[in-house]
Each structure stands twice: as structure tokens, then as C-alpha cells.
Write a structure and sequence with these properties.
single chain, alpha+beta, two-stranded antiparallel ribbon, about 15% strand
């Protein structure tokens, strides 16, 4: 389990059987009751969610750019298929 000193916020990994045991921080020397650090897990989840959102936004931007370039190429070639050209009018 991961626990954190309430005084200096140093983190340490302990065996699960030490949960609720009194431990001394190796950094500052304070004695505290070891509890699982739930806060250490939340930022990782949030980071993964943010990374996934950024990847999705990047894919969307690339798709829009590809569609615009394909649209511009179709206009340069005389418009979309099936539309009358100015010579046909």
C-alpha cells in the first residue's frame, strides 16, 4: 500500500499488513498512522483522462484538415462530381 506522511508529504510503500500501524517517517521523523493514500491514485486517473481527451481532439483536428484539403482539391478540379460545370450551363 502507498501511504503519505501528513507532515512532509513523503510517500512510502508498505506491505498491506501495516495498514493502521504507527510508522515513523524516514524524512521528517514524525510518527503517524499508516493509511492507504487514495489521493495518489486520483491524479493518475485524471492524467489518463486528460491524455485521452487530448488524443481525441488531435484526431478530430487532423480529420477536419483532411476533409478541408479534400474539399479544396475537389473545387480546384471543377467542383464535386455530378454538379454542372460552367461550360454545361
Amino acid at each position: 500500500m502507498l501511504t503519505q506522511c501528513p507532515n512532509c508529504h513523503a510517500r512510502v510503500t508498505l506491505p498491506d499488513e501495516h495498514a493502521r500501524a504507527r510508522v515513523r517517517c524516514s524524512e521528517c521523523g514524525r510518527v503517524y498512522v499508516a493509511r492507504a493514500d487514495e489521493l495518489g491514485r486520483a491524479p493518475r486517473r485524471a492524467g489518463r483522462l486528460l491524455l485521452g481527451g487530448l488524443a481525441g481532439a488531435l484526431v478530430l483536428i487532423v480529420l477536419i484538415a483532411l476533409l478541408r484539403s479534400a474539399s479544396g482539391a475537389a473545387e480546384a478540379a471543377g467542383g464535386p462530381e455530378g454538379s454542372p460545370s460552367p461550360a454545361d450551363k
